[in-house]
Specification:
Helix content is about 25%, strand content about 25%. The protein starts with a strand and ends in a 9-residue tail after the last strand. The longest helix is centred in the C-terminal third of the chain and has 11 residues, at about 200-210. It has a single domain, classed as Metallo-beta-lactamase, Chain A, CATH 3.60.15.10. The protein contains seven helices and 13 strands. Strand 4 (about 60), helix 2 and strand 5 (about 85-90) form a beta-alpha-beta unit. The strands form two sheets. A seven-stranded mixed β-sheet has the order 7-8-9-10-11-12-13. The protein has a six-stranded mixed β-sheet with strand order 1-2-3-4-5-6, with helices on one face. The chain is α/β, with parallel strands linked by helices.
C-alpha cells in the first residue's frame, strides 16, 4: 500500500498524494479574499506554494463556490500549470469555472453519485449544510463534502458545514473514516452579524467525529482570517478535557497513514 502525504494549505485547502497521484481539495493560494473584501480578511498564513507552481495536480475537488474554496486566482493558473488536471464540484461551481474559461472536458459535476476518478480512487459527494442543505431548481446540491476512498483508506473533507443528521447518515453509509478534515470556526451571532457564515464549533466537530467513527481528526477552516479564527489552544484544551476516542492531528504534514 502506498504511503499518503497530506499537506495543509490553510483554510480548507489540502493536498493529498499517494502512489504518484495528486489530489487537491479547496486550494486557496492567492489573496483574492482580501482584494475583494478588504484588509480585515488578510491572510494570516502565507500560501505554501504559488498556483503556477502546481504542475502535478491530477484532480481538484471543490466544495462550493465561495472564493476561499473556489478561488479563480488559484484555479485558473493551476489549470494552466497542470493541463491534464480535472475539476470536480457542485453544478454552480462547474458553471462558474466554465464561464472563466476552463474547458468543459476537464469539468465534472458532483451531486449525489459516486465518482470513480482513478482505478483505486472513488469519491462520494455528501451534502453540506452551510448553514442549510440547499439545492437548485433542478435538484443539484450547492454545498458538498467528499468521502474519498483511496487505496484502502477513507478520507472525509466536509467542506463548509454545520452538523446535520443527513450528513451524519450519508457519511456513516460510506463506512468508518480514517481521516476526517473538519471545520471548527463555529456559527455565532457576531459572525452572522458580520456576514461570516460559520460552521461546526470545536465541540460539535468532535462529537460529529465520534458519531461517524473517525479514527483521526484534522481541524480546518480556523487559521486563515482573523475575524474567523479559532485558536489551537482552544482545540487542544477541548480535546484533552473531553478525551474523545479519535486521534487529533493539528499538523497534518506529519500525519502518518
Amino acid at each position: 500500500m502506498p504511503r499518503f502525504s497530506v499537506t495543509a494549505l490553510g483554510q480548507a485547502g489540502f493536498r493529498l498524494e499517494a502512489g504518484g497521484f495528486v489530489l487537491f481539495v479547496d486550494p486557496y493560494l492567492s489573496d483574492q479574499v482580501e482584494k475583494v473584501e478588504g484588509p480585515a480578511l488578510r491572510r494570516l498564513r502565507p500560501a505554501p506554494m504559488r498556483p503556477e507552481q502546481v504542475t502535478d495536480a491530477d484532480y481538484v475537488l471543490i466544495s462550493h463556490v465561495h472564493m476561499d474554496h473556489c478561488d479563480i486566482e488559484t484555479l485558473l493558473p493551476l489549470s494552466q500549470a497542470s493541463p491534464a488536471c480535472r475539476f470536480v464540484g457542485p453544478r454552480i461551481v462547474i458553471d462558474y469555472l466554465a464561464g472563466k474559461g476552463i474547458d468543459s472536458s476537464r469539468l465534472i459535476v458532483a451531486n449525489r453519485d459516486r465518482l470513480q476518478i482513478a482505478p483505486t480512487i472513488e469519491v462520494t459527494p455528501v451534502p453540506a449544510a452551510h448553514k442549510l442543505i440547499e439545492q437548485d431548481s433542478q435538484g443539484f446540491l450547492r454545498y458538498l463534502g467528499y468521502v474519498i476512498e483511496w487505496e484502502g483508506k477513507r478520507f472525509l473533507h466536509t467542506g463548509d458545514t454545520c452538523v446535520h443528521e443527513c450528513l451524519i447518515e450519508k457519511v456513516r453509509a460510506c463506512g468508518p473514516i480514517d481521516v476526517a478534515l473538519l471545520p471548527v470556526n463555529e456559527c455565532n451571532f457576531f459572525r452572522d452579524r458580520a456576514g461570516i457564515v460559520g460552521n461546526m464549533s470545536i465541540r460539535e466537530a468532535f462529537r460529529f467525529a465520534e458519531e461517524i467513527g473517525a479514527r483521526t481528526v484534522v481541524p480546518m477552516h480556523y487559521d486563515m482570517f482573523e475575524p474567523n479564527q479559532a485558536y489551537r489552544e482552544e482545540i487542544e484544551i477541548i480535546y484533552t478535557r473531553t478525551s474523545p476516542s479519535f486521534r487529533l492531528v493539528l499538523d497534518p504534514d506529519a500525519l502518518s497513514i
